[in-house]
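Board work, copied verbatim: STAS domain-containing protein
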Amino acid sequence: MIALQMPSELTIYTAQSVLDQVLAEEDSRALQLDLSATQEIDGAGVQLLLAIQAHAKQRQWSVSLTNACASVSAVLALFQMADLMTEPRIDE
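↓ predict structure ↓
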């Protein structure tokens, strides 16, 4: 499993670099995205997570999100993506 630390913001300004980082992990069969540092997420960040999920599904990888703060967890829940969380969320 490859664990990747996500940046403090998953926004339009960081989405491409994060996607490039994920796509570089071609040898992995499982990705764990650590959201402990992520405090802000916008529509581009949500699209990024959906793109990563689609990329992983196409390659038969598993993807999990861990350590999301309450505000990021709320956004994930709003978009019905909370099922990607594999560990308890971090309280703010």
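The chain is about 35% helix and 20% strand.
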